């Protein structure tokens, strides 16, 4: 999963980066509003964590701006403000969730995953496409009621394709989503991962368009 | 008995006073009117009696006198030696029992007036005249007053009631709005009456008070927000660090790094709490109790010594332009805080290898001056830098540690000593701060 954290406090930023990193999330960060807005507009993320009180450009402004630009990435507001009115303002401005500081990391992670589930599996915790069932909470895949073992990258790639079902997903999108910008990968890696995935869950499941990308059709 | 409403009080007082005035006035009027009516009856009867006397002395017969036009409405008797010598037909002999010269007998609807007059010629005797069927004007007047007075009283109270309502209307609206005002809804203002009177003044001062409360509440709200932000951020880090680190077994160096972060954040929280407590502990009313004689110059030199290390690290030179021996009554803790916060700021915001100048002298009042060659403060931010948690460098210089309480504490401490704080600054050139105590 790939998330963007926009937070001006370097301690909280490094903390969240470390925390989510340990769960194999791909974490990108911005320590000010402008950079955050730029990254959120440029790249696609599964979830964005947005601090409310940022210097110069407030979290609410960024939120409104992104929603105006039709960027529908789920956003969780993180803030020291805890009044009902603040929560209402945040949620009505387009935030999907709201968490007051000081928060528990476990809770934040659970909320991030819930939002991710909502965007991939419309809120449920499992997706069934033809004879393949994916349990998002347990991270397990069953084909004809038989469990299939997938590597983390294979699993994430599958989920990414399902999230963008019926759309062509390019190699560049996959690379950015699964490895982030910091990691350098061999161009072959994506093809190899796709190959393993198809072998495990069936060739017809993922359609390949040579030189363009891949697609899951439902 | 106490009446709660001003209106009831005014009405009761007004009613009582009006009632008394009406009563006294009616009584006096009744008395004088009665007297004047009686006098006029008496003088009329006297004239008639005198006329009869004259006629008698000129030898006229009583029947003839009675028939004469002037006294035809009177009854008449002539008395000699206590015996009725002669009388007209309707003369009531009962009236003779009363020996007064003039008196009035009340027959309910009518009055009769009786007058006696002695005469000597043609013989010594008395003329007694009765005027009957006199309209009782006085009684009529008393009757009229008896029903007119209460009506007048009720009417006046009714009018007074309406007038009081009109006058008290702004007070009612003040009460209504004052009842509506809570911390969360300080946005009502009271409608100002048009007349430029005391009530308008009252309403204006109420509105001004609401405005002041509103500003105060806004300040508190902002302060709460600031405090919550400043305290919750380190708390988030402490909680998150512990949670993530405890999530799985780790190498000792990871634990050490986690505990160091927690220690750092805890220190940060402590500094904020100390600062806030310092701001809250003293007020104008209790500061005098904490005053003691202190040597301002010694305090300053001790503080400067404490910052030697920070100065060396940045290769800054702190130059003392002038320092005089000054001893005065003050709160040593706050004086220390003023010096250390100002020197700390100067060191933080002055780039490496630059100069900081300080001077302390007495010239009627105590002056402390600190000038730096630092980054300065822009004009638009200058008015806010003494606000709690305000940081002029918010965006461009997050690397400088601090949470914006320092200058606020300095300002507060200076004001507690009835002193003044002057800040001059130019962006990129430096800042000059003067404290006058």
* Subunit organisation of the chains: heterodimer
Radius of gyration of chain A: 18 Å
- Our estimate of the beta-strand percent of chain A is 15-25%
CATH class categorisation of the largest domain in chain B: Alpha Beta
The CATH superfamily title of the largest domain in chain B: Histidine kinase-like ATPase, C-terminal domain
Rounded average pLDDT of chain A: 85
Q: CATH topology of the largest domain in chain A, anyone?
A: Rossmann fold
Number of helices of chain A: 8
**What is the number of helical segments of chain B per DSSP (H or I, 4+ residues)?**
9
Biggest sheet character of chain A: 5 strands, parallel
**Largest interface (CB < 8 Å):** A-B, 25 and 22 residues
- Give me the secondary-structure category of chain B: alpha+beta
Rounded radius of gyration of chain B (Å): 51 Å
Overall body shape of chain A: globular
Low-confidence segments of chain A, given as residue ranges, are: none
CATH topology-level name of the largest domain in chain B: Heat Shock Protein 90
Strand order of the largest sheet of chain B: 2-1-5-4-3
Q: Runs of chain B with pLDDT <50, length 5+?
A: none
H-E order of chain B: HHEEEEEHHHEHHEEHEEHEE
Care to describe what's here?
The complex is a heterodimer of chains A (218) and B (437). Chain A has 218 residues and is α/β, with parallel strands linked by helices. Chain A folds into two domains: 2-121, Rossmann fold; 126-216, Orthogonal Bundle (Arc Repressor Mutant, subunit A), CATH 1.10.10. Helix content of chain A is 43%, strand content 22%. Chain A has eight helices and twelve strands. Chain A has helices spanning 10-21, 33-42, 59-68, 84-92, 105-121, 152-163, 171-179, 188-201, and strands spanning 2-6, 26-30, 47-51, 75-79, 97-100, 126-129, 132-135, 140-143, 146-148, 169-170, 206-209, 213-216. A five-stranded parallel sheet of chain A has the order 2-1-3-4-5, sandwiched between helices. In chain A, strands 6-7-8-9 form a four-stranded antiparallel sheet, with no helix packed on it. Chain A has a three-stranded antiparallel sheet with strand order 10-12-11. In chain A, strand 11 (206-209) and strand 12 form a beta hairpin. In chain A, helix 2 packs parallel to helix 3 (59-68) and helix 6 packs across helix 8. Chain A is globular and about 50 Å long. The model of chain A has no long low-confidence stretch (mean pLDDT 85). Chain B is of the alpha+beta class and 437 residues long. Chain B folds into three domains: 6-144, Beta-Lactamase; 198-281, Orthogonal Bundle (Helix Hairpins); 287-436, Histidine kinase-like ATPase, C-terminal domain (Heat Shock Protein 90, 2-Layer Sandwich), CATH 3.30.565.10. Chain B contains nine helices and twelve strands. Chain B has helices at residues 6-57, 62-67, 137-180, 198-246, 252-281, 296-306, 308-314, 332-349, 406-416, and strands at residues 74-80, 83-87, 102-106, 110-119, 125-135, 292-295, 317-323, 327-330, 355-363, 365-372, 420-426, 430-436. In chain B, the strands form three sheets. Chain B has a five-stranded antiparallel sheet. A five-stranded mixed sheet of chain B has the order 7-9-10-12-11, covered by helices on one side. In chain B, helix 5 runs parallel beside helix 9 and helix 6 packs parallel to helix 8 (332-349). Chain B is rod-shaped and about 155 Å long.
């Amino acid at each position: 999963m790939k998330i963007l954290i926009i937070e001006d406090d370097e301690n909280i930023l490094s903390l969240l980066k470390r925390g989510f990193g340990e769960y194999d999330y791909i974490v990108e960060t911005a320590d000010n509003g402008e950079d955050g807005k730029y990254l959120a507009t440029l790249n696609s993320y599964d979830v964005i964590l947005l601090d409310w009180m940022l210097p110069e450009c407030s979290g609410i402004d960024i939120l409104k701006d992104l929603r105006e630009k039709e960027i529908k990435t789920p956003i969780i507001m993180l803030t020291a403000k805890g009044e009902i009115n603040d929560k209402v303002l945040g949620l009505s401005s387009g935030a999907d969730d709201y968490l007051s500081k000081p928060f528990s990391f476990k809770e934040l992670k659970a909320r991030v995953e819930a939002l991710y589930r909502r965007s991939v599996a419309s809120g449920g915790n499992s997706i069934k496409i033809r004879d393949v069932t994916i349990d998002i909470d347990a991270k397990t895949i069953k084909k004809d009621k038989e469990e299939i073992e997938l590597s983390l990258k294979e699993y994430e790639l599958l989920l990414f394709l399902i999230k963008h079902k019926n759309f062509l997903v390019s190699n560049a999108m996959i690379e950015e989503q699964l490895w982030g910008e910091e990691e350098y990968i061999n161009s072959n890696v994506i093809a190899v991962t796709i190959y393993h995935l198809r072998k495990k869950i069936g060739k017809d499941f993922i359609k390949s368009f040579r030189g363009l990308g891949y697609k899951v059709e439902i | 008995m106490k009446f709660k409403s001003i209106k009831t009080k005014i009405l009761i007082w007004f009613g009582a006073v009006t009632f008394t005035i009406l009563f006294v006035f009616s009584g006096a009027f009744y008395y004088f009117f009665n007297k004047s009516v009686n006098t006029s009856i008496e003088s009329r009867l006297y004239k008639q009696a005198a006329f009869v006397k004259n006629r008698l002395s000129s030898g006229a017969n009583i029947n003839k006198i009675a028939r004469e036009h002037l006294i035809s409405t009177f009854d008449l008797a002539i008395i000699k030696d206590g015996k009725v010598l002669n009388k007209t037909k309707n003369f009531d002999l009962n009236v003779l029992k009363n020996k007064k010269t003039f008196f009035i007998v009340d027959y309910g609807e009518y009055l009769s007036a009786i007058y006696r007059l002695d005469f000597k010629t043609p013989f010594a005797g008395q003329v007694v005249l009765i005027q009957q069927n006199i309209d009782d004007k006085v009684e009529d007047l008393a009757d009229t007053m008896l029903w007119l007075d209460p009506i007048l009283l009720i009417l006046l109270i009714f009018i007074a009631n309406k007038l009081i309502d009109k006058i008290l209307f702004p007070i009612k609206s003040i009460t209504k709005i004052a009842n509506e005002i809570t911390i969360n809804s300080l946005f009502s203002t009271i409608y100002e009456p048009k007349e430029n009177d005391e009530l308008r003044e009252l309403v204006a001062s109420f509105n001004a008070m609401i405005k002041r409360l509103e500003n105060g509440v806004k300040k508190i709200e902002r302060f709460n927000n600031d405090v919550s932000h400043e305290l919750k951020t380190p708390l988030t880090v402490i909680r998150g660090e512990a949670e993530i680190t405890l999530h799985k077994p780790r190498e000792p160096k990871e634990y050490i790094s986690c505990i160091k972060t927690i220690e750092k954040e805890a220190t940060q929280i402590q500094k904020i709490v100390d600062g806030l407590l310092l701001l809250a502990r003293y007020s104008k009313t209790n500061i005098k109790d904490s005053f003691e004689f202190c040597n301002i110059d010694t305090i300053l030199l001790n503080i400067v010594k404490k910052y030697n290390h920070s100065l060396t690290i940045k290769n800054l030179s702190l130059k003392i332009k002038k320092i005089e021996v000054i001893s005065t009554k003050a709160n040593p803790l706050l004086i220390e805080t003023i010096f250390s916060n100002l020197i700390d700021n100067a060191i933080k915001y002055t780039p490496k290898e630059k100069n900081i100048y300080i001077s302390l002298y007495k010239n009627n009042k105590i002056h402390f001056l600190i000038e730096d060659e630092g980054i300065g403060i822009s004009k638009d931010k200058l008015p806010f830098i003494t606000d709690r948690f305000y940081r002029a460098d918010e965006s461009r210089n997050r690397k400088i540690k601090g949470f914006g309480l320092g200058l606020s504490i300095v300002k507060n401490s200076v004001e507690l000593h009835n002193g003044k704080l002057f800040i001059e600054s130019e962006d990129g050139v430096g800042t000059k701060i003067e404290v006058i105590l």
